[in-house]
From TrEMBL:
It catalyses: an alkanesulfonate + FMNH2 + O2 = an aldehyde + FMN + sulfite + H2O + 2 H(+). The lineage of its organism: Bacteria, Pseudomonadati, Pseudomonadota, Alphaproteobacteria, Hyphomicrobiales. This is Alkanesulfonate monooxygenase. It comes from Sinorhizobium americanum. PANTHER family: ALKANESULFONATE MONOOXYGENASE (PTHR42847), ALKANESULFONATE MONOOXYGENASE-RELATED (PTHR42847:SF4). CDD domains: Alkanesulfonate_monoxygenase.
Length: 389
């Protein structure tokens, strides 16, 4: 069996800071709105996505609270929510995680976010240096995992002290919900190797992703562990390659050079993230160098922090690029597109058949077996295809 024989685990994204059709413009933009998030969540639940990433940060809705709301409107969708060491105690986060896993009936995934914007962390009361944040996170998760797995924890650490900590109710998932994590620095990779279940990378080139996977595997093996891998990517999938590239250009058609410069300056000034630096290095803020690998387009990273690349092309083209990542060891994709509601449908309808993912869940049959073509939705219904025509 080859690495690509198994279909990818495909998640979508809830744009909890807002959504839009053009980067760098408020034309056709959509504000942060709980009703809109529910539309996206119920759509992707039906379309067959396995879960959603809910982002974290001062510009986003709080991920645990939003996930609890969306869980009530969905059936199978899983929720990847952020645990941020230092923002609250491990005991409090354990209670949040256990309750959300219980009320969602085992649909919780946990995303460890230890870094990002140093400026934002300072606002949250975290003043640790970059590498020290991972030392702190290691102690945090000793307590957090003990509580979720056994209901009890003790630690007298350098950063975390927990004396006879207890958790009243266990999570549904045993021994605990899975831990996801992304970080590109040496300290982050060493931290991940001893703890996480799935290591995430932003959408770098296949060569860069392959090097990173090899490094994480080696670090995990040194600790007697195995780690699985996922990738965070945007998608612009259209019926033809030319249509897809035209829509990539359209997405940044209202983006000014001044807005790009301001965004790039802010990223460099406010973040000590190695991963963010690697994203910026892909394009250097230049519009003329955005295809950084075949069909891998870095235009989104001109103004978006974090994940800044998209796979662009027809379903067959994008599927071929995804298989290249699968051959490296990627088994999970966390995807998005602008606007997120419409693009969830495009990716499902165009790309899913090419990568072996099934039709929408609970799809009710609409005929007694006859083939039909869409007739415009008139009173007479759709058109039945005449045999032999």
């Amino acid at each position: 069996m080859t690495k690509t024989d198994n279909p990818l685990n495909f998640l979508w994204f809830i744009p909890s800071s807002g959504d839009g059709a053009y980067l760098g413009s408020d034309d056709l933009s959509r504000p942060s709105d709980p009703g809109y998030f529910r539309e996206i969540a119920t759509a992707v639940d039906r379309l067959g996505y396995s879960g959603v990433l809910i982002p974290t940060g001062v510009a986003c809705e709080e991920s645990f609270v939003l996930a609890a709301n969306l869980a009530a409107f969905t059936e199978k969708l899983k929720f990847l929510v952020a645990v941020r060491p230092g923002i609250a105690s491990p005991a409090y986060y354990a209670r949040l995680a256990s309750t959300l896993d219980r009320v969602s009936n085992g649909r919780l995934l946990l995303n460890i976010v230890a870094g990002g914007s140093a400026q934002e962390l300072a606002g949250d009361g975290v003043f640790l240096a970059h590498d020290e944040r991972y030392e702190h996170a290691d102690e945090f998760f000793q307590v957090f995992n003990q509580l979720l797995e056994t209901g009890k924890a003790n630690l007298d650490g350098k950063y975390i002290k927990a004396h006879n900590a207890q958790l009243g109710f266990p999570p549904v998932q045993e021994p605990r919900p899975p831990l996801y994590f992304g970080g590109s620095s040496d300290a982050a990779i060493e931290f991940s190797a001893g703890l996480v279940d799935k290591y995430l990378t932003w959408g770098e080139t296949p060569d860069q992703v392959g090097e990173k996977i090899a490094k994480v595997r080696k670090a995990a093996a040194a600790k007697g562990r195995e780690v699985t891998f996922g990738i965070r990517l945007h998608f612009i999938v259209r019926e033809t390659d030319d249509e897809a590239w035209a829509d990539a250009d359209r997405l940044i058609s209202k983006l000014s050079d001044e807005t790009i410069a301001a965004a790039q300056e802010g990223f460099a000034k406010n973040s000590d993230s190695v991963g963010q630096a690697r994203m910026l290095a892909l394009h250097g803020g230049r519009r003329d160098k955005l295809e950084v690998a075949p069909n891998l387009w870095a235009g989104i990273g001109l103004v978006r922090s974090g994940a800044g690349t998209a796979l662009v092309g027809s379903p067959k083209t994008v599927a071929a690029r995804l298989r290249e990542y699968q051959d490296l060891g990627i088994d999970t994709v966390i995807a998005s597109g602008y606007p997120h509601l419409e693009e969830a449908y495009r990716v499902s309808e165009l790309l899913f058949p090419e990568i072996g993912l099934g039709p929408p869940r609970n799809q009710i049959r609409s005929t007694f077996g006859e083939h039909q073509v869409f007739g415009g939705g008139g009173h007479g219904g759709n058109l039945r295809v005449v045999a032999g025509s």
